[in-house]
Fold these 3 entries.
Entry 1:
Amino acid sequence: MKILVVDDEKIKRVTLRDDLRESNYDTIAVDSPLIGLQLLQQEAFDVLVTDLRMPQMHGIDFLKRVKKDHPHITVIVMTAYASVETAVEALRFGAYNYIKKPFSSEELILMLEKLKALRSKSPENTQASSKVDDTNQEPSLYQTLIGKSQQIQEIFNLIPKVASADSNIMIYGEEGTGKSLLGKTIHLKSSRQHQPYVSLNSYGLAADTIELELFGEDSKQGKLHLANNGTFFIANVDSIPLDLQAKFLAVLENRKLTETQDTDAIEMDIRIISTSRDNLKDKTKRGEFLEDLYYQLNVIPLFLPPLRERKVDIPMLINHFLDIYSPHQSIKITPEAVNVLTDYPWSGNISELENIIERLVAVNSGQDITPEDIPIEIKLPTSQKLDTTPSLTSFHEIIKSTERELIAWAMRKTKGNKTQAARLLSMKPSTFRDALAKHINHIEWEE
């Protein structure tokens, strides 16, 4: 087994190289990803062991490049304890495993021995058996969903089962929780993975537009037809008007689609993955959703929890978005800033978190992200109802709390624009700024 080690830390790099060679591993060690890429072009390696934080090229970028150009190579990433989330992120992009620094050479050798044992069970040679690792052509869960919370891990465990069942699935959850990613992952893990995956978000669309998108017209094929033999993902299915629900139901019950009066009915073999932000069962009781359609779509119900209920995943998501929006800058975030973002309720869920990280990277000057860099509307206290704050015993305390709630609301509503926030509350800009400063100081004192 031939090993390439890439690490800019000289002592660790040389020690690993020597210890691996003593254990009969043909090993070359270099200090730069750029040199590593050159070597990979010149020689065939079985395993790449690489650090994630290096000056010339971020480890995630290096990993992506390696897996693109050399998909059969097995990659093990080394990471400091504080960046385990980034290491887990590396799994999404094709890494085989990760090992936390500081570690002994024996730990890495044990991992390599296990890898060698797994490969030896295959009747094919090393290069060919590595095709098992090349399922990156069929994206894994790590390439779509992120999280280590119990709720997300339960979803991970369910995905292979529901994907193989080939039954219709309904995904419930708030906006921005990752329902579309879950739907795509299920498709990619199913027997239909090489067939079409067609999606439609019906929210906010006019009835005639929904009808055209679903069923087509004249020379334009509808999305149901395009998804035949594959998967049709429809977001916010509860937005479809009742008359179109009936037409949709007929296609599912009859397994036939008639696009125009002049064409023959098309035999349909299609899996439906739907999403809804509301409880469809309640909508059927109110006559807002057809009960028969509900039973057709709700064969396997899944629920994605809001981000505020899986706060343990937030640091991992932060690192994920930092890698996406600062691939060449290696921007880091301080633990204090992570704590601020973790405490925020994220009403927009993962989509809102992604937006904030993108903003922080866009205005960053190459320094670590600190609490001072975080938009002010994120740091303001969240709204509280008076009946849940029994500690407020005096009139002045209640007034002060209410003022803070109003300022926080206005700042979120205007995305931190103080002038617009003052106008929203019918306050003079100078008065608003004085009040804002008073409460910001209080927040800093609490932290």
Entry 2:
Amino acid sequence: MDALQKWQQELSNNQNLQHHLSAFIDQFGISNIEHALQLYSNLHHEYICKTKTSVSKLHVYDIYYLQIQGHHISIHTQHGIYQKYGTLAKELKFLSPYGFEKCSQSCIVSLGKIKAIHHNDIILLNGAKLHMSRGYASKIILAYSQYNPFRSTIS
């Protein structure tokens, strides 16, 4: 029996789970189950921050944004700031499937960590304020509204 068959059998035998799923679908719709599953999946993905002298494993979900100056990248997380050497393009390629977008030439932001967008400023859940370049504004606003439609605060 493969994993899908086991899951289907568990669902058919678990009345409580069926009730919770039905209530969730009734309240939020099918598309938000996909969104919730993606968020849950993101909680378990790791990001490796490697330097010449150290290696740190970070949870993708903990990352607020990345900034680059020269080739020095600062990774801002809820647990502190980590440093590494590299390019923003390489980091964006890895992080974009997890809801990260470029908001300026030197910054990538997690859409899930945005509290509000006000003019050219992005305000994050931790209170940090990032500048959003005009060239990236429409893409960020669209991606944010699609990524997190219930908390969109754009003015």
Entry 3:
Amino acid sequence: MELFDDLSSKILSGSKTAVNKAKEVVDITKLKAEIISEESKIKAIYTEIGKLYCDKTEGEIDPAFQPFLEKVAVAKAAIADYKAQIQKIRGTNQCSECGAEVAENAQFCSSCGAPVPDKAADDVEKEPLEQEKSCGCGCGCGGEQESSEGTTAQSEEN
């Protein structure tokens, strides 16, 4: 009988240890999730500070921030392009009044009721007089970055 009592006390002790370890893991996981949540809040606050700075200092921006603002402009242009691609795939346009998506053949916006301009006249493609160069990065440099790099590469080859 003593053997069974000893064995059951060891099993009970082992199970209590396992339960305590499991509780510790759960508690640590919860705390790590809280840390991640607080870090996300800090990042959001930093983002708000940066946006406020950009909005408040228009035209008077410290040159140290210029590369970051250019990256933001490139990212915004890419987002606009991606949204246009999504609208093309969906067969929708954007309401010029409220920005809501409307079907290509809609006459009025289903969100604000504004009349949607007839796209038939806009669909006639006009050939540009001179095709604008682009470096492909979407920065609007007019190909200056690519041409200067390309010129350097070409001169090195020669």
